[in-house]
Amino acid sequence: MRSDQVPAFYRKTVQVADSLPRIPLLLVQAEVTERPANAKTSRIISPCVSVCAAVLMMALTGCSAQAIVHFFTTPSSQPTQPAQPAQVAQTTKPAQYVAKHEPKPKPEPSRQELVDYIRGRLLSLSPSDGVDDNLEVAFNPSFSILSITQPDGRCDISLSEIDNNSAVWEIVDPSDTDHPRAEVLRLTMNSVTGRAARTCYDSQNQVDTSVAPNRARLFFSLAKAKAIPEFTYKMDKAIKELVVESGGSPEKEIKIN
Asked: For the chain, which residues make up each domain, given as ranges?
């Protein structure tokens, strides 16, 4: 292109560039004002106007006819971006199943623990009528003797001679005509046949022959015992376990048809 043609070419390029943005606006206005019958014609003319504008731009810039044809027939040089594969939603892995371990069974109480429990209950739940009070409780592990001291003396219970199948709980009223007393809860356990379950001594430490030796008895305040949940069940279990720990016979299930 000659140097004297540059200003004229520049002016034409600017005029075309200024006119191109107004083409879509004119088309939109035409679509709004024209009747619906011309809507199809407007949609067909719009691409044609765009193509003519592009051809005119190339002609003004000095492009040859071959270049114009090459522009419309050659596919875009930019590589087509491959379609992105749809992302598959990641499924959340299920939480691993944790096996629930059953709690370990509590170990059986020791012999001394049983003694401490029974002694504590005999003292804390003792009657207070002046007759059946549990003043002191002691255990001799060498001979398996449970000694209970009361106001009128002491009884030594031979746990190894007790029959666990003979346990009986009773509610007793120790009142007499002159001295009303509160009801007491009494546990009675018999001895194995031919054995002595207890030996009792009076306040002078002499053997009291008036007390039957073939059964042992434990006394508790009924009012106090009622305040302890499942007291008779727990005490019954504790005394029977202590009897077994001391060499006595275990409780047996006897079926009678």
From this structure: 3-70, 111-245
Does the pTM exceed 0.85? no
What number of residues does the chain have?
257
Report d(CA 76, CA 59) in Å as an integer: 21
- The string of pLDDT tens digits covering residues 215-249 is 999 999 999 999 999 999 999 999 999 999 999 88
Residues 58, 52: Cα–Cα separation, whole Å:
10
Residue 46: count other Cβ atoms within 10 Å of its Cβ. 15
- pLDDT digit string, tens, across residues 115-167: 999 999 999 999 999 999 999 999 999 999 999 999 999 999 999 999 999 99
Cβ atoms within 10 A of the Cβ of 243, count?
26
Half-sphere exposure of 10 (CA within 13 A, CB side): 6
DSSP 152: T
Strand partners, 78: none
189 CB burial (10 A radius; 0-12, 13-18, 19+): buried
Which residue, 127, 122, 170, 163, is CA-closest to 146? 122
